[in-house]
Task: inverse folding
């Protein structure tokens, strides 16, 4: 059975979801950057859907269709309707930005874009805790490392944890990554159960021929792929695997559950993730929680020591533990990165922004160009990770049963506005999913 026939069977009559996908493809076609407007899509009949997209559609008509779809979705009295309306609003906002850029006009500010998509203000944040985080980070860095500044010393520390042999020994690197994936999946299975996790063969670790892209996790039978362990000119740092693997594993779990739900209910809009979309806060916020949810610190250090042992690298456990504490401390510096993006949005000079990032976010000068390029490419999306992590971490900590709460984050469309209301609906009789 080909993809188009399968899509017709699965989503017959779902004009609401398919119109959303058609309009998303139209807006994506206006984006000069690949893979920015649409993060990923695994709709079974994608080629057939693309064929339905007119080659040229006047912007006024596209805007009208988005307005009509927003009204239709808003009239659906369920979480599906509310969430789809919010997603259409995000797509309309993205269209406004692309239209301005194409016309050579300044687009709306990143702050306005953020407010339209998420309905919350983005303001300058107080730096409470930043100075303390600086002192704690400096205290963690081993005394024997050189360097004239904290960023330089951190880079030296990071480089000392790289494994040069893994650049050439791809089979060993693959074995190590597979070990991290298997251990994380086993922990997730024990905590969340078989009804939530996809089958083991749904996860396929692929190592492309290019040695500088050493691994990615692909969804079997889908159009989405997830980076698992990737390096450019430098050898990999195994101490970061238990940050990356749980994050990407939860993305795969989310994709699996959404695709399953899309097939059960015939809601085809769930087969696409868009970047400027409130569902991305749910997806990224949940994924950012994965490492601390699945791997308490000491257990994460234990496994990471084993991973280095597989590469014949003997590490001091205390130093490794200290390095793996850096992530949580650098999270406290996210307010600085958020404020720096506000400075860019408000027209501060590049030199002023760079000085602020180096002094307050502890950025090394070599990272500045890539940071500015990322902000230029993704605009308000730069604020999604810290915002999403903070609201979903706070919500999860309030729940009496954290495991049940994590299942809700994976199986319900609890976008930020729904988290604020937190009004769970009665369970459905379809696949154990509820709240739509």
Result:
């Amino acid at each position: 059975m080909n993809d188009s026939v399968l899509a017709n069977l699965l989503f017959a009559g779902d004009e609401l979801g398919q119109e959303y996908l058609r309009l998303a493809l139209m807006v994506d076609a206006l984006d000069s950057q690949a893979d920015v407007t649409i993060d990923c899509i695994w709709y079974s009949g994608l080629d057939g859907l693309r064929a339905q997209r007119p080659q040229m559609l006047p912007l006024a008509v596209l805007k009208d269709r988005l307005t009509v779809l927003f009204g239709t979705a808003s009239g659906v009295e369920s979480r599906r309707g509310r969430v789809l309306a919010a997603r259409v609003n995000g797509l309309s906002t993205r269209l406004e930005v692309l239209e301005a850029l194409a016309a050579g006009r300044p687009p709306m500010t990143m702050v306005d874009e953020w407010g339209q998509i998420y309905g919350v203000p983005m303001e300058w944040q107080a730096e409470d805790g930043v100075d303390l985080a600086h002192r704690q980070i400096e205290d963690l860095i081993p005394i024997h490392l050189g360097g004239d500044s904290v960023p330089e010393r951190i880079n030296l520390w990071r480089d000392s944890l790289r494994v040069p042999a893994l650049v050439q020994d791809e089979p060993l690197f693959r074995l190590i990554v597979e070990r991290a994936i298997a251990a994380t999946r086993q922990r997730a299975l024990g905590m969340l159960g078989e009804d939530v996790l996809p089958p083991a063969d749904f996860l396929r670790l692929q190592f492309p021929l290019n040695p500088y892209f050493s691994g990615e996790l692909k969804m079997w039978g889908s159009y989405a792929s997830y980076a698992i362990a990737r390096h450019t000119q430098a050898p990999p740092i195994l101490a970061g695997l238990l940050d990356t693997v749980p994050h990407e594993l939860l993305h795969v779990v989310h994709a699996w559950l959404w695709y399953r739900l899309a097939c059960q209910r015939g809601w085809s809009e769930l087969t696409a993730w868009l970047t400027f979309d409130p569902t991305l806060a749910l997806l990224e916020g949940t994924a950012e929680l994965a490492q601390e949810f699945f791997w308490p610190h000491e257990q994460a250090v234990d496994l990471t020591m084993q991973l280095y042992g597989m590469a014949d690298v003997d590490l001091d456990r205390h130093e490794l533990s200290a390095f793996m504490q850096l992530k949580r401390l650098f999270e406290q510096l996210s307010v600085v990165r958020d404020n720096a993006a506000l400075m860019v949005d408000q027209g501060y000079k590049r030199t002023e922004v760079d000085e602020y990032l180096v002094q307050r976010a502890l950025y090394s000068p070599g990272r500045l160009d890539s940071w500015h390029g990322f902000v230029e490419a993704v605009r308000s999306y730069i604020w999604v990770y810290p915002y999403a992590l903070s609201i979903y971490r706070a919500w999860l900590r309030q729940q009496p049963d954290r495991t049940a709460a994590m299942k809700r984050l994976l199986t319900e469309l609890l976008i930020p506005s729904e988290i604020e209301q937190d009004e769970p609906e009665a369970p459905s009789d379809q696949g154990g999913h509820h709240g739509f």
Observations:
- The first helix runs from residue 3 to 10.
